[in-house]
Design brief:
Elements (H helix, E strand, L loop, with lengths): L8 H23 L2 E7 L5 H12 L5 E7 L4 H7 L4 E6 L8 H11 L6 E5 L6 H4 L6 E7 L6 H4 L1 H6 L2 E5 L11 H11 L4 E4 L8 H17 L1
Parallel strand pairs: 1-4, 1-5, 2-3, 2-4, 5-6, 6-7
Helix pairs in contact: 2-9
Length: about 220
């Protein structure tokens, strides 16, 4: 007979995080602060997309940005040049943010008067998908050079996001990437997902993305 206990800690951690996420979402709702959790692999163009998003919306709403990385402040320094509120979050080796870490980041940023907050999550297609950050909506970026097979390899990520930005469309002629195949694969995982092709570097597709955000922020504040 075994003389030790087995504790299913993973389930316990997730359940506690989900409770914390719901509480954070409720607080953000009261404050009328819309939080977008933006996820992707490293090098997909998250920061460039954040810059384009700020450019498109900064004259209409107050924006704050939380930059999450294992180390460095490169992204926060880049975003700070836009003039919006920004904070750099170091995860100390963690490959994701959970609800409590996100709450700490928002408190550090200061959400009073912030209509729209962007959480640029740690570059990773695995861990961030498992933890509810308390965000109003989840988005991810898939860049063309990564390939059209990523929905098959990382189904959870594609199943939990509200919108998929397919970035670097200007390079599609150089890679074996089928946009329609990606759409078909992600729709099987997530029938309600919104797919928006963009090229953050040039601004292609950013208008559609900004319009989606305008609608979501408005709905968040009105409900």
């Amino acid at each position: 007979m075994d003389t030790y206990k087995i504790l299913e800690i993973k389930e316990s951690v997730f359940e506690n995080n989900d409770r914390q996420a719901d509480l954070l979402r409720a607080d953000l709702k009261k404050e009328k602060t819309f939080l977008l959790n933006l996820m992707s692999s490293p090098g997909s163009g998250k920061t460039t997309t954040v810059l384009r998003t700020i450019e498109a919306l900064k004259d209409e709403m107050s924006i704050g940005v939380l930059e999450a990385d294992i180390d460095s402040d490169v992204d926060a320094n880049t975003v700070s040049k836009t003039g919006v509120k920004v904070i750099q979050l170091h995860t100390g080796g963690m490959c994701h943010l959970d609800a409590d870490m996100t709450k700490q980041g928002l408190e550090g940023l200061g959400t009073e008067g912030v209509d729209f907050a962007i959480l640029e999550n740690v570059g990773n297609l695995v861990c961030p998908a498992e933890f509810d950050t308390g965000a109003s909506k989840n988005a991810m970026i898939l860049s063309v050079p990564e390939g059209d097979d990523k929905p098959l390899k990382y189904p959870l990520m594609f199943s939990i996001v509200d919108v998929l930005l397919i970035n670097k469309m200007d390079s599609i002629g150089f890679f074996d990437f089928d946009l329609e195949v990606v759409k078909e694969r992600v729709k099987k995982l997530n029938p309600n997902i919104k797919v928006i092709p963009i090229t953050a570097k040039t601004g292609e597709g950013i208008d559609e993305w900004a319009n989606w955000l305008r609608t979501e922020v408005k709905n968040w504040n009105e409900k």
